[in-house]
Input
Amino acid sequence: MRFQVTRALDAIEARMRTDPLLTGAIVDVAEAMRIPGSDGRLANLLRLGLVIDALSRHLADESVAIYAVGSRSVLADTDLTSNERMALRRWSDDGMIEILPAGTDALSRVCEVAWSVGQPVITARSLPGFPGARLVPAPASGSVMLASAGSKSPQQRSQPVSRQWHCPVPGCPSFPPSGPQSPPQNSGTGIAVCPRHLERLVDAGPRPMTVPIALRIDGLAKYRFGLSAGAPLVVGRAPDGPGAVVLGSYLAQHIVTRVSRSHLRLELRDGVIIVTDISTNGSLLNARPDRGAAPRVEAMTRGKPVALGEWDAVELAEGAEIGRADRGAGGAAGDQASSVMQDAPTVAIRLPKM
Output
């Protein structure tokens, strides 16, 4: 059983990030691990995996991660096993979760991050005055389900996320010198501070705008990647060279032969995704005016750039689409999402049936 728990925690670790490009919701880890269960434990870190599975089903995205926040006290929570506390410390050291100084209100930070990156909060607690979206978790037949509450409109990222920051504490995992960074904490006086160390951050200049892109197979997101301004990408079955996004391993056998080695060129210009068909197999533009609308299908002309609308997607082959990861339609495809809990022992995650 211990081996199964370790494998389950490793699977959860793969879906814990503080990179908003990879995450789909913000969660207080202490609340998630205390979702009511019937296993006799007050807290169980594996319940975080059930929340990840619920988010995958809700968004129809089996590649999505969660952005977890917790007070430092969670690292010493005696309701957790020593193995679970060790996992939390490792995730914190590696920058996979955001650990706040003792006494800091985790839910306030959760809401701040959610509003900064334009993602919903997963919480059963009411959020008076919070203008963003909320997903309410509840036990359901041995799993967790999420119900939408609050705003349902996509949120826009705020200005602090468009800057690069430097933390004066050496080796701070929240603000590495390159790569993804956590959103800074607002001190209440307009000064950006590190949420881990409460040190004033140094503005290191603008960060190129980046949008999350997803490969969807039959409506289910399989893979996420970022498209940044000034850094065009080539997407296909097995493209070569810098800026290559290889999709071959995510394509079923009946699809892979219909996707060209180099199929699309993607650019981000002034916040607009520009897509160019460079394939030998052809592509279709599925234009949608809003979420859930039936697409208007148009054949793309090879070599002709096309501006992608907010809810548009490009069909590489039947059932395989490229589009914005944060503009998915969700729906029944989420029921097919793979579970991070498939290796967990049943007794360790048993929840009460509702």
Observations:
- The first helix runs from residue 2 to 13.
- The longest strand covers residues 220-228.
- Confidence is low (pLDDT under 50) at residues 347-354.
